[in-house]
Amino acid sequence: MDKTQNKEKLTFNRLSDDEMLQRADELYQQLSTRRTVREYSNEPIPDGLLEKLIQSAGTAPSGANKQPWHFCVVTNPDLKRKIRESAEKEEKENYERRFSASFKEDLAKFETSFKKEYIDHAPALIIVFKERYQMENGVRRKNYYVNESVGIAIGFLITAIHNAGLVTLPHTPNPMSFLNDLLERPKNESPILLMPVGFPKKDTEVPVLSRKPLDEIMHIYD
């Protein structure tokens, strides 16, 4: 068998050392300004922008190139309201019964509650589903490294959202099966993240946080 079948030549632009360092620093400087936002303006998102952001997420690597993800974009006000009502119902149970005391203590500094106004205040929601397995002509096909693959795609998506000048919040109402029902998604898909997307409300404030320094998140073996 010809081992070159189903292959193409890699397109690769070799940068100089200075260019690589400059690009790496510019990306770091940009990402260092990213913040999770819970207050959204009603300003509309430019047409076609969400599609481009999800296309970027879809370039992520995945196990055996199965691409086990699906992104649902919700802009319909009635549907956003229904999602908020269902999410708040589950979150109320979480805060009152399911969350441990230590988790609630850690959350206290963010002043969060079961109320999730951002779900219907943001102009758009992106709900990320993981595809636990594929169905092809009625036959069940295995996906590989699903959680890892979808997690990487979400990282790409958050980066793309920030790069485009928008803000978001990775929200995980749990359990999330109500999203399958409201969005009529198939049984082989499981929702794992709900992301409001838009512009921050004027004069929005965020908690004062610090990120771990490099020497706490990296160890070099040379």
Could you name the key traits of this structure?
8 helices, four-stranded antiparallel sheet, NADH Oxidase, two-stranded antiparallel sheet, alpha+beta
Per-chain topology:
Layout: H1 17-31, H2 49-57, E1 69-74, H3 77-98, H4 101-107, H5 118-121, E2 124-131, E3 133-136, E4 139-142, H6 146-163, E5 167-168, H7 178-183, E6 189-198, H8 214-217
Antiparallel strand pairs: 1-2, 2-6, 3-4, 5-6
Helix pairs in contact: 2-6
Quick structural gist:
The chain is an alpha+beta fold and 222 residues long.
Give the distance, in angstroms, between the N- and C-terminal Cα atoms.
41 Å
Helicity, in percent? 25-40%
Poorly predicted spans: none
What is the CATH third-level topology name? NADH Oxidase
Strand/helix succession? HHEHHHEEEHEHEH
Total domain units: 1
Shape: globular
Please, could you describe this protein's structure?
By secondary structure, this protein is of the alpha+beta class. It has one domain: NADH Oxidase. The chain is 38% helix and 15% strand. It has helices spanning 17-31, 49-57, 77-98, 101-107, 118-121, 146-163, 178-183, 214-217; strands at residues 69-74, 124-131, 133-136, 139-142, 167-168, 189-198. The strands form two sheets. The chain has a four-stranded antiparallel β-sheet. Strands 3-4 form a two-stranded antiparallel sheet. A hairpin with a 2-residue loop joins strand 3 (133-136) and strand 4 (139-142). Helix 2 packs antiparallel against helix 6. The longest helix is centred in the middle third of the chain and has 22 residues, at 77-98. The radius of gyration is 20 Å and the shape is globular. The N and C termini lie far apart (41 Å).
